[in-house]
Amino acid sequence: MTRFFKAFFIFVFFFQTSCALYKPKPIASTDTLNRAKTDLKKIENIKEINKEFREGTEIDLYTAIALAINNNKDLKVKILEASLTNKQIEDVEFDMLPQMAVGGGYTSSEKYNATTSATVDNNDKAGTIGSSYSTSRNRDVLEQDIGFTWNALDFGLSYIRANQSSDRYLIAKENEIKVANNIARDVVRAYWRALSAKRLMKKYDPLLVKVYNALNDSQTIEELLLQKPMDALLYQKELLDIQRALQTQKQSFVNAEVELKSLMGLMPYDNINLVGTDQPLNELDMNLDEMEIYALLNRSELIEADYEERISVNETKAGVRALLPGLNFNATWTSSNNDYLMNKSNFEYGSSVGANLLNVFRAPKIKEINEMNTEIIREQRLALSMTVLSQVHLANIDYQLSLEGYDTADRYYNVANKITDQVRNAQKIARFGELELIREEASLLVAELRKDLAYSDLQYAVAQVYTSVGLDVISEDVDNINTKQLASRVKNNFKNSSKKYYARVSIPIDKQKPYVKEDSENFSKYKFSANTFKMEGNGRTQLEAYLKDNSSLPRWITFLPSQRTFVINNEERDEAIDEVELKVVASNINTSVEDNFTLIIDPVLREKRLAKELKIKKAKEAQLAKAKKSKPKTKVNMADIYNDEWLLSRIETKNFSYLSTKHLKDMVAKYEKEQLLEERRKKRKDNPIAKFFEKFKEDLRSAAEVHRKRFPKKES
Fold first, then answer.
1. I need a labelling partner for 536 at 20 to 30 A (CA). Which of 50, 57, 188, 633 fits?
2. What is the pLDDT, as a whole number, of residue 161?
3. 3-state DSSP call for residue 364?
4. How far is it, in rounded angstroms, from Cα 592 to Cα 542?
5. pTM, to two decimals
6. What is the bridge-based pairing of β-strands 579-587 and 592-600?
7. pLDDT higher for 141 or 397?
C-alpha cells in the first residue's frame, strides 16, 4: 500500500507540472517596464552616437549614403542574418566530428532481481523449474561510461551540409549588398528633396507671412465697407487657396527631411547640417548592351540563384548518399561498482555496417525529385534574368523621361520667374495689385519646387540605373572604416563608374572682337559665336551672364541667351563707362564652363583713356628713374637701422663708410637709448647686440671720423 501511494503522488506531481506548462502566462508589467527602459537606454546611446551630426557636421550626398549604410536598421538586420548564417556553418562543422557520449547512473531496487532456470531435454520440453535463485547484480549499482562513435556516412553528409551552409552565408552577403544598394538609391532621392526643402523654406515663410497680412488687410477693408463685399470675399478666397497650397508644400518639406533622417538611422528630431554636393550623379559609363551583360554577371538576385542551384545539386548528392550503407566505428570505456562482475571496468570497441535494402528502389526517385527541383531553380533563374534585363531597359527609359521632365520643369520655372519679375516691376507703377504679385510669387515657388523635385527624380533615375545593373557602391566590407572614409569610397565608386563629360571654351570671346555695334540711336549690341563653347552631357545648354565678380548685370545691360547677344541701353549707361568686365557661364545637366572677357562699349573713349593712362604711367616711370639717379647706388633701408642682425653684420665687418651722416646720427641715438636698457638686455642671453655694445660705440666714433674725412662737402 505504501508503494502504491508513492507511485500515486509521483504521478500527480508530474501531471500537475505538465498541465501548468500549457496555461497562458501574460507578460508582466514589470517585464514591459524593463524592456521600455532598455529601449530608452539604447535610444540614448543612438543619440550620443549621432551627436556629432547634430553639432554642425556637414552632410552632403555621399556622407548621407555612408551614414545610411552604417546606421540603417534594415541593413543591420541583413548584416546580422549573414553573421548568423556564418555561425551556423561553424555549428554544422561539428557534425563532421566523432560523437563522444558520457553517461553515468545510479540504479536501486527494493528487492534483488533474482532468477532461476530449468533444464531442457532433447524433445524441446522444459523440465521442472529449479528451486534455487541467483543474481548477478547488486540492488544498488553505480555505473559510468564514456564512448566514441563515428559514422562514415554521417561524415559525408555533414560535409555536404557544411557546403550548403556556406552557400547560404554567401546568399546572405548578396542580400546585404542588395539592401545597401537599394538604400543608397533611396537616399539619393531623399537627399535632394530634403536639400530642396531646406532652401525653399527660406522663401516659404516670408511668402506665407505676406499672404497672412494681405488676408487680414482684406478682412479689414471688408468690415469698413471700403470695397464691394463680393470682391473682398473673392479676394480672400483666392488668398486662402494660396495659403492652403503653401501649407501643403510645407508638409512635403517636413516629410522629405524626416524620410532622409530615417534612412540615415537618425532620430526624427535630430538637427542636421545638410549641404550641397560638388559631384551629383552622372549616368553610367556603359551602353545598353554592356549594361545587360554587366547586370547578368553582377545582379545579387542572379548570384543568389546560382547559389540556390548549387545547394540543390548538393541536396541531390546528400539524398543519394543517405541511401548508402552506414559504416559505424565505436569505442567505449565502462565502469561499475557491481560486486558480481569479474572486471568492474572494461574497454570495448568495434564496427558495424547496416543498410536498408529497399533503398535500392528508392534511390532513382530521390534523384529524379532533386534533379527536377534543380531544373525548377534554373528555370526560375532564367525568368529572373529576363526580369533583370527588363529592369535595365525600364531604368534607362525612366532616365530618359526624367531628363525630359527636368527640362520641362526648368523651362517652366524660367518663364514663371520672368512673369514674376514683370508683375513685380508693374506693381511699382501701380499697374497690378498685391494679389497678383502674391499669386505669381506663390506660382514661382511651386515652379521652383517642381523643378527641384524633377531634379531629385532625375538623380533617383540615375541611381536606379546603377542599381538595375547591380553595381556595388560599397565594394568592400565596412566593419573597420569610419563614415568619412566610407563616404569618400562611395563617391569614388560612383565617379569611376560614371561618364566623364567635359566642357571647354573653344573660341574665347576676347578673341572674337568683343566690340558693341550700334543697332539704333539708343541701343548697341554684341553677339558672340555659337561655337564659343564645346559642351558634352544631357539637356539643353543654358547661357547665363554676370559681371566678372559674379554680381548681377547692371540695368543698362541685357543678355539674350537664346541669341547669345548683349544689348546696351545707351540712355541709362554712364557716358564715362567705355568697357565692362563680364562672364558668360554655359551649363547643362552634367557639366558647366565659364569664359571671362572685356566687352568694349565705346572704343574711341577707351582709346583716349588708355592713352592718358599710358602717358601718366610713363611720367611716373621717368620721375622714379630721375630720383633713383640722384641717390647713392648703395641704398640703406631705414627700417634696417633698427634690425639687430643687420647692425651685427655691420659691427663685425666694420663697414660704415657708405653711410650718410644722418644714418650715423640715428644709429648713435639708438644705441645711446640702448645704453639705458643695458641691464635688461644683459638678461637676454640670445641677444647678440648686448656683448658688442661697448665695442660698437667705439667703432661708430671711428667710422664717423672716417666719414668726415671722406665726405668733407656733405659734412659742411
1. 188
2. 75
3. helix
4. 9
5. 0.66
6. antiparallel
7. 397
Measure the CA–CA gap between 510 and 596, rounded to whole angstroms. 8
Residue pair 148/99 in contact (Cβ under 8 Å)? The answer is yes
CB atoms under 10 Å from CB of 248, counted, come to 9
Beta bridge partners of 560: 565
**Chain CA centroid to CA 21, Å:** 51
Distances (CA, A) of 188 to 52, 181, 184, 191, 463: 22, 11, 6, 5, 7
- List of long-range contacts for 121-128, beta carbons under 8 Å, 24+ apart: none
pLDDT of residue 302 exceeding 60, the answer is yes
pLDDT digits (tens, 9 = 90+) for 118-175: 777 666 666 667 667 777 777 777 888 787 676 666 666 777 777 777 778 788 888 8
According to DSSP, residue 538 is labeled: S
H-run or E-run covering 339:
none
How many C-beta neighbours within 10 Å does residue 326 have?
Answer: 14
C-alpha cell at 298: 553582377
Cβ within 8 Å of residue 710, ≥6 positions away: 657
Domains of the chain: residue spans and CATH: 59-106+139-498 (1.20.1600.10), 503-610 (2.60.40.10), 638-715 (no CATH)
Which cell numbers in the block locate residue 691?
656683448
Average pLDDT over the chain reads 75
Task: Please report which residue ranges of 341-358 form alpha helices under DSSP H.
Answer: none
Instruction: Determine contact, residues 446/472, Cβ cutoff 8 Å.
Output: no
Rounded CA-CA distance 519/555 in Å is 18
Q: How far is CA 528 from CA 483, 512, 519, 577, in A?
A: 47, 7, 15, 21
DSSP 574-633: -TT--EEEEEEEEE-SS-EEEEEEEEES-HHHHHHHHHHHHHHHHHHHHHHHHHHHHS-S
Nearest 5°: phi and psi at 337?
A: -100, 20
Q: Look up cell 549588398; give the residue.
A: 177
**Confidence category of residue 635, pLDDT binned at 50, 70, 90:** very low
Cite the beta strand spans of 291-401 per DSSP E.
Answer: 326-336, 345-354
